[in-house]
Amino acid sequence: MQAQPRNSPAPRLILASASPRRRELLGRVGIIPEAIAAADIDETPEAQELPRAYAQRMAREKALAVSGNGAHVLAGDTVVAVGRRILPKAEDVTTARACLQLLSGRRHHVLSAVAVKRPDGTLRERLSDTIVRFKALSTQEIEDYLAGGEWDGKAGGYAIQGSAEGLIAWISGSHSGVVGLPLFETRALLRSAGFALG
């Protein structure tokens, strides 16, 4: 957990994620976590686990893995899925290329789950389901995108907040959910969990 300055008040909100994208998204709507605590959990999908259930389980387990100490704990997880198939986070260019080739010219779902653990330990959850369709990508377009490195560590091998947005034909749902945290659902969830929004 991020250290708190001496004599500082106890945190009201802990973000159970080290993702700078999630911190940036929260800041856009005036929500500033007082502490960051990346949850250390096994993120391996279970056998036959469907994408929606997997995203929800990951967000839930991340929230539960972080000690709140009287604060609300916010966690999220984003999954890119084609049908029943969960696409990996691209850790190498070969994986990223395979993801983009699969996504080329077709629709896919981006499932962004959010969980809030209240100070009393109870959980509240929401899920955003966004449909995204890439244009039919040429080999050169894929290679140009890969050369930029934006795919690194991204679910499905792309980051919508970067140059990939110029390759997306249409989107139906939450743009912020595709980035990594659906802001509408997150604000509603925090409010319903008793967290006072500014």
Automatic annotation (TrEMBL):
<keyword id="KW-0378">Hydrolase</keyword>
<feature type="active site" description="Proton acceptor">
    <location>
        <position position="77"/>
    </location>
</feature>
<keyword id="KW-0546">Nucleotide metabolism</keyword>
<feature type="site" description="Important for substrate specificity">
    <location>
        <position position="78"/>
    </location>
</feature>
<dbReference type="Pfam" id="PF02545">
    <property type="entry name" value="Maf"/>
</dbReference>
<comment type="function">
    <text>Nucleoside triphosphate pyrophosphatase that hydrolyzes dTTP and UTP. May have a dual role in cell division arrest and in preventing the incorporation of modified nucleotides into cellular nucleic acids.</text>
</comment>
<dbReference type="InterPro" id="IPR029001">
    <property type="entry name" value="ITPase-like_fam"/>
</dbReference>
<feature type="site" description="Important for substrate specificity">
    <location>
        <position position="161"/>
    </location>
</feature>
<comment type="similarity">
    <text>Belongs to the Maf family. YhdE subfamily.</text>
</comment>
<protein>
    <recommendedName>
        <fullName>dTTP/UTP pyrophosphatase</fullName>
        <ecNumber>3.6.1.9</ecNumber>
    </recommendedName>
</protein>
<dbReference type="InterPro" id="IPR003697">
    <property type="entry name" value="Maf-like"/>
</dbReference>
<feature type="site" description="Important for substrate specificity">
    <location>
        <position position="21"/>
    </location>
</feature>
<dbReference type="GO" id="GO:0016787">
    <property type="term" value="F:hydrolase activity"/>
</dbReference>
<keyword id="KW-0963">Cytoplasm</keyword>
